[in-house]
Amino acid sequence: MTFAQSPSNHLPINYDLECDEEFCPDDFESPFRLHITLPRTLKPAAAGKRLTFHSRERSTGTGVVTSNDKTTDLETIHDGPLDPHFFQKGFYLEAKTGFQVWPGSRLLLQALLCELDDAPSEGSAFTRLKYWQDRLLRSSTPLNILELGGGIGAVGGSLAAAGANVLMTDLNVLVNHGMGPNLIRLQSSSGDCAAFFPFLTSMLPAKQSEDNIVQEPIVIGCGCARPTVLDWFKPVSEQLSHDACNNVDLIVACDCIFLRKIVDPMFNAVAEIFRNAKRSEEVTCLFTYQRRNLMGVFITLEEVLDKIAKRGWSVQCLAWRKVVVEDDGEHDLYLFEISSKGQQEALRNDVESNCEEKKES
Ligand SMILES: C[S@@+](CC[C@H](N)C(=O)[O-])C[C@H]1O[C@@H](n2cnc3c(N)ncnc32)[C@H](O)[C@@H]1O
Q1: Disulfide-capable partner of 319 in 176, 216, 333, 335 (CB 3.0 to 4.6 Å)?
Q2: What residues form DSSP beta bridges with 289?
């Protein structure tokens, strides 16, 4: 499948969502601090709120300049076998990528939190983003977002602060050493999660006893978040409760589609959530994809789109821009939305035509 990007949904960086980063050499575990300041147009409890996320490595391709930059020293400490976390359980290349923030995070946050210009000629370019913005920022019912591969929690924490209920998921090592500690640091002193169940409060019995540093939903700004383990190589039903899956409104996944070997497992997880969600036809998945060099290990966009088509899902590019990635040049970065609606309509048509055929015979 080929893909042509349209000038009408080009989304350059908007500085209403401020991002900056600093290097704290004394913190050996997580020496970088990514600060995200939410747009001032949000509700008072979120407007202009500055959220800080500790990370092991500096963000990449986000357009953020690190102040007090001592990257060269740091990379010699953190690279390869000298990485101090190398022998931690579950710490392999995919997990290592989660300890830094990737460009899709900033694109998705901007797309959902910043005001969007009307496209000059095609008024409908940002229609879907405006729909999700309305549900997230202006609805009286909080939006239930399931985040896949949330890493250190920058996206999930920011969406929660803006008003969503976010079930933030990743591998165990990220839940307990990345997003978990960051959410605890972000916890608001006031607020109550009572209104946020059952999406965030119901857990499988096995999970309640699992070693997870956060056992309850955490209030952040206008919303609430909870980190929990979801490994795409295992069935979702063994890891998330029925109530959690049932109540999902939107799935988000930033920069999770890059290594070829993890794409099918991630799409299997998305498919299982689509199937089990109560409002199945309305639930969609927003994901970002960045083109890269070194294709081979990394999957191409055309292959990703083919995989989506083979599942009978529909896909739409909602926004894109160019990003500069250190040591890898300039690349296109996209925000896509996938939906199983087409697949469900096709299934219904199949069933109806089967029934008609049976009646006739
Ligand atoms: C490139 S990082 C992106 C992190 C974050 N979303 C961002 O954009 O900054 C990919 C994420 O996918 C997660 N991941 C990789 N394999 C996974 C799996 N099998 N199950 C769940 N998460 C996985 C990693 O742990 C990591 O957090």
Answers
A1: 335
A2: 334
Across the range 70-93, mean pLDDT stands at 50
Rounded to 10 deg, the angle between the 103-113 and 154-162 helix axes is 10
Q: Is 289 in the pocket of ligand 1 (CB under 6 A)?
A: no
Structure tokens at 265: 């497992």
Helix (H, G, I), strand (E, B) or coil at 53: strand
**pLDDT value, residue 356:** 63
Would you say the CB of residue 254 lies under 6 angstroms from ligand 1? yes
Question: Atom of ligand 1 at shortest distance to CA of 231?
Answer: 20
Cβ neighbour number for residue 34 with a 10 Å cutoff: 25
The proportion of the chain whose per-residue pLDDT surpasses 70, expressed as a percent, equals 79
CA-closest residue to ligand 1 atom 21:
231
DSSP label of 302: H
3-class DSSP state of 79: coil
Domain annotation for the chain: domains and CATH numbers: 7-360 (3.40.50.150)
Mean pLDDT of the chain: 85
> For ligand 1, atom 20, which residue shows the shortest CA distance?
231
| φ and ψ of 236, to 5 deg | -60, -40
pLDDT higher at 191 or 93: 93
349 CA distance to ligand 1 centroid (A)?
36
Please report how many Cα atoms fall inside a 13 Å half-sphere around the Cα of residue 331, on the Cβ side.
23
For ligand 1, say whether the CB of 15 is within 6 Å of any of its atoms. no
Question: Does 269 contact ligand 1 (Cβ within 6 A)?
Answer: no
Amino acid 28: pLDDT: 85
Q: Cis bond leading into 120, ω under 30°?
A: no
Residue 217, Ramachandran bin (φ over 0: left; ψ between -120 and 50: alpha; else beta)? beta
Ligand 1 centroid to Cα of residue 90, in Å, is: 12
Using CA atoms, how far apart are residues 327 and 231, in angstroms rounded to an integer?
A: 30
pLDDT bracket for residue 68 (50, 70, 90)? low
Atom of ligand 1 nearest to the CA of 147: 6
Is residue 82's pLDDT more than 70? no
